[in-house]
Design goal:
With 136 residues, the protein is of the alpha+beta class. Helices cover 29% and strands 27% of the residues. α3 runs antiparallel to α4.
Protein backbone atom coordinates (compact mmCIF):
# COMPACT_ATOMS: atom_id res chain seq x y z
CA UNK A 1 0.00 0.00 0.00
CA UNK A 2 2.63 2.55 1.06
CA UNK A 3 6.21 2.53 -0.12
CA UNK A 4 8.08 3.82 2.89
CA UNK A 5 10.71 2.74 5.35
CA UNK A 6 9.01 4.36 8.32
CA UNK A 7 5.82 3.85 10.28
CA UNK A 8 2.61 5.22 8.77
CA UNK A 9 -0.72 6.15 10.30
CA UNK A 10 -3.23 6.51 7.48
CA UNK A 11 -6.76 7.54 6.68
CA UNK A 12 -8.26 6.22 3.45
CA UNK A 13 -11.44 7.50 1.85
CA UNK A 14 -12.43 10.26 4.27
CA UNK A 15 -15.47 11.93 2.69
CA UNK A 16 -16.09 15.62 3.32
CA UNK A 17 -18.74 17.91 1.82
CA UNK A 18 -17.17 21.30 1.12
CA UNK A 19 -17.31 24.34 -1.12
CA UNK A 20 -14.59 23.86 -3.74
CA UNK A 21 -14.21 25.17 -7.28
CA UNK A 22 -13.73 28.22 -9.44
CA UNK A 23 -17.12 28.52 -11.13
CA UNK A 24 -19.97 30.52 -9.62
CA UNK A 25 -22.22 27.46 -9.45
CA UNK A 26 -19.50 25.58 -7.53
CA UNK A 27 -19.26 28.41 -5.00
CA UNK A 28 -23.00 28.07 -4.30
CA UNK A 29 -22.98 24.35 -3.42
CA UNK A 30 -20.96 21.77 -1.54
CA UNK A 31 -19.28 18.89 -3.34
CA UNK A 32 -17.91 15.63 -1.98
CA UNK A 33 -14.18 15.35 -1.51
CA UNK A 34 -12.43 12.01 -1.05
CA UNK A 35 -9.32 12.34 1.08
CA UNK A 36 -6.45 9.94 1.74
CA UNK A 37 -3.82 10.87 4.32
CA UNK A 38 -0.57 9.11 5.19
CA UNK A 39 1.31 10.49 8.19
CA UNK A 40 4.79 9.07 8.67
CA UNK A 41 5.51 9.00 12.38
CA UNK A 42 7.19 6.86 15.00
CA UNK A 43 4.63 4.44 16.46
CA UNK A 44 7.14 2.48 18.57
CA UNK A 45 6.02 3.92 21.93
CA UNK A 46 2.34 3.06 21.27
CA UNK A 47 3.31 -0.35 19.90
CA UNK A 48 4.99 -1.20 23.22
CA UNK A 49 2.64 0.55 25.65
CA UNK A 50 -0.71 -0.29 24.01
CA UNK A 51 -1.81 3.11 25.38
CA UNK A 52 -3.91 5.40 23.20
CA UNK A 53 -2.15 8.44 24.69
CA UNK A 54 1.05 7.30 22.97
CA UNK A 55 -0.61 7.08 19.54
CA UNK A 56 -1.30 9.60 16.83
CA UNK A 57 -5.03 10.29 17.12
CA UNK A 58 -6.48 9.54 13.69
CA UNK A 59 -9.99 10.55 14.79
CA UNK A 60 -8.68 14.02 15.63
CA UNK A 61 -6.90 14.11 12.25
CA UNK A 62 -10.18 13.28 10.47
CA UNK A 63 -12.12 15.86 12.49
CA UNK A 64 -9.52 18.56 11.82
CA UNK A 65 -9.22 17.83 8.10
CA UNK A 66 -13.01 17.86 7.72
CA UNK A 67 -13.27 21.17 9.55
CA UNK A 68 -10.43 22.73 7.55
CA UNK A 69 -11.90 21.63 4.20
CA UNK A 70 -15.21 23.26 5.09
CA UNK A 71 -13.61 26.45 6.45
CA UNK A 72 -11.05 27.06 3.69
CA UNK A 73 -13.58 27.12 0.80
CA UNK A 74 -10.74 26.95 -1.70
CA UNK A 75 -11.15 27.51 -5.39
CA UNK A 76 -8.33 25.11 -6.31
CA UNK A 77 -7.57 21.66 -4.94
CA UNK A 78 -3.90 22.65 -5.09
CA UNK A 79 -4.55 25.43 -2.57
CA UNK A 80 -6.66 23.19 -0.35
CA UNK A 81 -4.12 20.35 -0.15
CA UNK A 82 -1.28 22.80 0.52
CA UNK A 83 -3.18 24.42 3.37
CA UNK A 84 -4.21 21.11 4.92
CA UNK A 85 -0.70 19.64 4.68
CA UNK A 86 0.76 22.71 6.40
CA UNK A 87 -1.82 22.52 9.18
CA UNK A 88 -1.26 18.79 9.71
CA UNK A 89 2.51 19.23 9.95
CA UNK A 90 2.02 22.10 12.38
CA UNK A 91 -0.40 20.27 14.67
CA UNK A 92 0.62 16.60 14.60
CA UNK A 93 3.82 14.76 15.38
CA UNK A 94 4.90 13.42 12.02
CA UNK A 95 7.88 13.92 9.74
CA UNK A 96 6.23 13.38 6.36
CA UNK A 97 2.71 13.65 5.00
CA UNK A 98 1.25 12.40 1.76
CA UNK A 99 -2.17 13.87 1.13
CA UNK A 100 -4.57 13.15 -1.72
CA UNK A 101 -7.82 15.05 -2.29
CA UNK A 102 -10.15 14.00 -5.10
CA UNK A 103 -13.38 15.42 -6.53
CA UNK A 104 -15.38 12.37 -7.60
CA UNK A 105 -18.18 14.36 -9.27
CA UNK A 106 -16.06 16.91 -11.17
CA UNK A 107 -15.67 15.10 -14.49
CA UNK A 108 -18.49 12.86 -15.64
CA UNK A 109 -16.22 10.59 -17.70
CA UNK A 110 -13.78 9.98 -14.79
CA UNK A 111 -14.16 8.23 -11.46
CA UNK A 112 -12.41 11.19 -9.84
CA UNK A 113 -9.89 13.96 -10.43
CA UNK A 114 -7.61 15.32 -7.77
CA UNK A 115 -4.27 16.38 -6.40
CA UNK A 116 -1.71 14.49 -4.32
CA UNK A 117 1.21 16.11 -2.52
CA UNK A 118 3.98 15.06 -0.17
CA UNK A 119 5.36 17.46 2.41
CA UNK A 120 8.05 17.16 5.08
CA UNK A 121 8.29 18.64 8.57
CA UNK A 122 10.97 21.25 9.03
CA UNK A 123 14.07 19.86 10.71
CA UNK A 124 14.24 20.73 14.38
CA UNK A 125 10.66 21.97 14.55
CA UNK A 126 9.01 21.67 17.94
CA UNK A 127 6.26 19.08 17.88
CA UNK A 128 2.94 19.66 19.63
CA UNK A 129 1.17 17.19 21.86
CA UNK A 130 -2.19 17.56 20.05
CA UNK A 131 -1.57 14.32 18.19
CA UNK A 132 -2.40 12.32 21.24
CA UNK A 133 -5.88 11.66 22.46
CA UNK A 134 -8.52 9.29 23.65
CA UNK A 135 -9.86 8.10 20.29
CA UNK A 136 -6.90 6.83 18.29
Amino acid sequence: MFHTESDVVFVKGLTVEAVIGVYAWERAITQPLLIDIALETDISKAAVSDDVHDALNYKAVCDDVSEWCQAIKAQLLEHLVGQIADKLLEKYTCHKITLSVAKPTAIQQADAVGVQITRYAKAGADKPTASKGDDA
